[in-house]
Amino acid sequence: MGSANGFFSAGEFSLDSKWLVDPKLLFVGPKIGEGAHAKVYEGKYKNQNVAIKIVNRGETPEEIAKREARFAREVAMMSRVRHRNLVKFIGACKEPVMVIVTELLLGGTLRKYLLNMRPRCLDIHVAIGFALDIARAMECLHSHGIIHRDLKPENLILTADHKTVKLADFGLAREESLTEMMTAETGTYRWMAPELYSTVTLRRGEKKHYTHKVDAYSFGIVLWELIHNRLPFEGMSNLQAAYAAAFKNMRPSAENLPEDLALIVTSCWKEDPNQRPNFSQIIQMLLHYISTISAPEPVILPRMFSSENAVLPPESPGTSSLMPPRDDSERNPNTRMEDQPGGFFFCFKQCY
């Protein structure tokens, strides 16, 4: 369905025709991720490798309306913003199912990357580099008046070389308004700012006011996790962590951090949102900190001898484990994905 101005719309869904995905050209491969209401697949669109997010519409009219509105909001925001640290939006369609197509990143989630490294920690330069990537993505969103509300390692994706982090999943993102209150629908408790849930147990549909500073709180928790490579509020359930943060003002320990780094972390998760820095300030603090520590040690490669008995260094155990699984047909350059079973409609029938 189209209109003279080149926009396609259905209910709340409105999309410039240049972003409208033709499902006939969409081919779905292996599943690479799954959330509460959507599954993500590796696939192809117009011969481009992509990530395909298929959103489950739900069962009841209330559920369907809620998910369609959330889908429309996510698509509208992703089509509006561009940044090197935001997963690139390629397009979307609402029929026959709700689909969002983005660039494919093969480095896995930050959550999986950190789990794979434990009990080792990231090099501090790598940790701060990742933190800067995240902060720059958030600065971009906030400059467009968008609150993400679900900043956590599961929504941060690495590039294949594991050198860059990009922010994904705008499912809970909202446009900030000084005059409108917002619903209490939120992200994962462990990383959530206390003001999202702390005053009272919100009744269904009740509104609550909060600002973009909720993302600064979540960033502080993520930064602590990047440095320590431990789960924040270890030993607690998500609800226990939320209760401790909101009602006891408990935070992960910053005692073992260098003073400048501890200041950044603790300022981000202050109880009063107005005392938390914005992301422009966070970026400046991180850049200042990185300038005060010594440069990373140069990597000295093992000396290689031209001998049949020379032993090559082993491949990093993290790299292969984070790549999506591929079967033999995928490795064959002469086999096209669209020639294999698993096209868009086939996958839809299998998955739901």
From TrEMBL:
Residue sites binding ATP per the record? K53
The family this protein is said to belong to: Belongs to the protein kinase superfamily.
Highest taxon of the lineage? Eukaryota
Q: Which GO terms describe its cellular component?
A: cytoplasm
What sequence ranges are listed for the domain Protein kinase? 26-290
Task: Write down a Pfam family by its short name.
Answer: PK_Tyr_Ser-Thr
Q: Does the keyword Nucleotide-binding apply?
A: yes
Where does this protein come from, organism-wise? Citrus unshiu
UniProt region (Disordered), positions on chain: 312-338
Q: Where is the composition biased (Basic and acidic residues)?
A: 325-338
Looking up InterPro entries in the UniProt record yields:
Kinase-like_dom_sf, Prot_kinase_dom, Protein_kinase_ATP_BS, Ser-Thr/Tyr_kinase_cat_dom, Ser/Thr_kinase_AS, Ser_Thr_protein_kinase
> What processes in GO biological process is this protein linked to?
signal transduction
Its UniProt entry gives the catalysed reaction(s) as:
L-threonyl-[protein] + ATP = O-phospho-L-threonyl-[protein] + ADP + H(+); L-seryl-[protein] + ATP = O-phospho-L-seryl-[protein] + ADP + H(+)
Print the keywords alphabetically.
Answer: ATP-binding, Kinase, Nucleotide-binding, Serine/threonine-protein kinase, Transferase
Kindly list the GO molecular function terms attached to this UniProt entry. ATP binding; protein serine/threonine kinase activity
Q: Can the keyword ATP-binding be found in this entry's annotation? A: yes
This chain belongs to the protein called: Protein kinase domain-containing protein
Q: Per its UniProt record, what PROSITE patterns does this chain match?
A: PROTEIN_KINASE_ATP (PS00107), PROTEIN_KINASE_DOM (PS50011), PROTEIN_KINASE_ST (PS00108)
